[in-house]
Amino acid sequence: MRRKTATARRAEVLEETLTQIRALGMAAVRVADVAEASGVSPALIIYHFGTKENLLSEALVHASAQDLSTLDSIVGAPGSPAFRLLAALDWYSPTGPARGWTIWIDAWSVAVRDRALAKVLADLQRRWIVAIAAVIDDGVAAGLFHTADSSAAAARLTSFLDGLAVRAVVHKTRTSRRDLRSWLIRQVSWELSVDPDELSGS
Q1: CB of 196 within 8 A of CB of 186?
Q2: Within a 10 A sphere around the Cβ of 167, how many other Cβ atoms?
Q3: Residue 1 is assigned to a structural domain of this protein
Q4: What is the pLDDT of residues 1-19, one digit of tens each?
Q5: Residue 37 lies in a domain
Q6: What's the number of domains the chain is made of?
């Protein structure tokens, strides 16, 4: 039987860490529980990750990797800037398939008192904003969108969806995909001074 590579074993540990976060909450996760579920010793986890805080941070980076890759594919795909922007925001949204919102809201809460984790989350958020701002820039170049600061516009649009995610997860307030699409069109129209009809047909 072939032994697992260090990379494969590391990925398994990070996946198990995410499972523990979903089940227990980030603050309650213990290295010992992750180690037992992963079939390794706690000492081995500490050897590779250093601290529990590093383990949690790397688990979040691991969780975001696939979504960021998909986001890059969406924004780099053929299609109008309006189509790609709405597709990217739909992917990001709390009714879309991207990201486990429970994990991220939990992480935001812990990050209030954990500066290292807050830095990791800020970096991940920056990567989302950069990707979405690039699509906005394409729309500005095409004369479709109008904004003096695409990064600020991207930050406000993602913050709008972050707020909906908190409502959905914490307050159990569900928004249908149809309503969310309508709200997104209204928000993008206002943010980027674009005719809603230009977005509705995208």
Answers
A1: yes
A2: 14
A3: no
A4: 456 777 888 889 999 999 9
A5: yes
A6: 1
